[in-house]
Amino acid sequence: MAGEPSYARRELGAELKRLREAAKLTQARIGAACHWSQSKIVRLERGEASLTIHDLHLLADLYRANDEQRAHLVVLMERTEEGRWWEQYDGLVTATMDAFLSHESLASRISVANMSIYPGLLQSRAYTTALFSKSRHVPDPDQAEALVDIRVRRRHVLDAGTQFHAVIGENLLISPVGGYGVLLTQLQHVLDLSHRPNVTVQAVPLLAEEPFTCGGLILLDYTANATSISYLEHSAGIVGYQLPLEVRRHRREFERMRSLAWSPEETQARLETRIQEL
User: Fold this and answer.
1) What range(s) does the HTH cro/C1-type domain occupy (predicted)?
2) Residue 112 CA neighbour count, 13 Å, CB half
3) CB 3.0 to 4.6 Å from 47: which of 10, 187, 203, 256, for a disulfide?
4) Which of 96, 190, 87, 95 is nearest to 146 (CA)?
5) What DSSP element (H or E) covers 185?
């Protein structure tokens, strides 16, 4: 994991390359102007090298970046410096999960659909604990609590105001994973989150035609020119997709499931009714 450039750093490099090409400047010319080797410019544009704020403004001057472009570069650079809180769980976080957590933490909009379990960002601690206590994919039972912590800490993106849209199955309002006490806690947790201005939750009725059932679907969108990414979750892991064709295909599937769901208001009413029943 240590040798892989972060998503934020790759996006900063891509934006620097776009500005350089728009200014019709070569890597060799920029290297000479900055008294750097051309290979350093190559590494910067690949996201494989770091920059100081002084160097960033130097490049912005050379590329004749306007105020908006310059401000965007600064934001991207600040994101590359953000703490990767999950690194303290080294050994539990696979390379694939490391990439996913980086992508998720920087997204401006997250769209998820899952008919079989609540998406991670909607899970209460009690629900997550119940899932991991029964999962055969937890390598060591002594690590289960740390895995729960990781999932709970992911929710900081919702506290930060990231737009979040979840489509779930009506069956999740009924299925007592961990017992009815856990279910009640989970339903109240989802209802509370659904009242946040940046969170939308919709449930697909049990009788809906052809609901999506193969694990979970996650779409991650970013501001400006950053590339959208999609992920598919299954019981044993998660797989990422960056090809535009794959991302578009997954976006169409998300929209299809969303079209089958109750409105956010109806979903909240169903949650309230179910809570009263319990």
Assistant:
1) 16-70
2) 26
3) 10
4) 87
5) helix 180-194
Burial string for 216-227 (b: 16+ CB within 10 Å, else e) reads bbbbbbbeeebe
Residue given tokens 């500005």 in the structure block: 19
**What global pTM score does this model have?**
0.73
CA-CA-CA-CA torsion sign (143, 148, 149, 150)? positive
- Interval 80-93 mean pLDDT: 72
Query: For residue 2, what pLDDT band results from cuts at 50, 70 and 90?
Result: very low
Q: What is the mean pLDDT of residues 39-52?
A: 86
Strand partners, 219: 111, 230
In whole angstroms, what is the distance from residue 114 CA to residue 112 CA? 7
Angle at 165 between CA 161 and CA 168, to 5 degrees: 140
DSSP letter, residue 123: -
> What local confidence, expressed as pLDDT, does residue 208 receive?
82
The contacts of residue 232 (CB under 8 Å, 6+ apart) are 214, 215, 216, 217, 218, 238, 239, 241, 250
To which residue do tokens 């390379």 refer? 95
Task: Sort strands 199-204 and 109-114 into parallel, antiparallel or unpaired.
Answer: unpaired
d(CA 275, CA 278): 5
Contact 219, 110 (CB under 8 A): yes
Task: Please say whether the dihedral angle defined by the alpha carbons of residues 143, 148, 238 and 9, taken in this order, is positive or negative.
Answer: negative
